[in-house]
# Entry
Amino acid sequence: MSIFKLNKTKEDEQVGIIYQTNNYNKFSFAEMNREIDYKHVERLKKEMQERFIRTNIIVDDQYVILEGQHRYEAIKDLGLPLTYTIINPEDSESFIISMNTNTKNWKNDEYLNFYVKKEKTKNPLNCHDMPYHNFKRARDYKIHFMTLIELIYSSRQKEHTIGFGKGKLFIQDKALFKENVNFLVTAMKQHKACEHRNTQLALCKYLIDKNFDKETFLEKLKKFPDKLVRSSTMDQATLNIKTLYNYFNKKSKLI
# Structure
């Protein structure tokens, strides 16, 4: 006698209809979805040319693509039949994030662009001073993502990046955030080492040190640029900043 028990189940149920078409023009992209990664599209095209496995895209009743926009682009370019399923989720924004996260993981900047669009849609008149817009302006200056998380929370714990992806970014002191961003941008313009992630993170730590003066650092950076070099570790970056700051500095020194 088999040791495995057979589960009694009811007959399979039909839960949706799959459609097929070659009329690609009937579809459109969801405004809140991420930007198309055309390198990913090219990879999909290559895979489909070698072995085409039919996979449905998901659209709403207006043929707006909720999931599968990269597959849509690849199939359209290759002229293959497109199969799709129509659904009508209660919250299309949450559905888009959930579905895309379960297929091709979103990058932090893709979440950023998503919430910038959301802020603009829901608050068109005052969106420019909202959290994700402020974060986006700083990213446009090439400040590293985790540097900005550190600036906002004085921490890089995973909960902050998870919250960022869930639309929970909160900047408690916007004025201070902008001031510190401007300081980092100035430092980056003065010295290449300040473009490096470890240097930026080390500077974030010093920005909450009462003995650290931004103007003094920028002055030292301008006078003695050779004292600051790119560092492979945070500890080394911290030491390099302290060495530069303390060099010929009789007023206040970093310990």
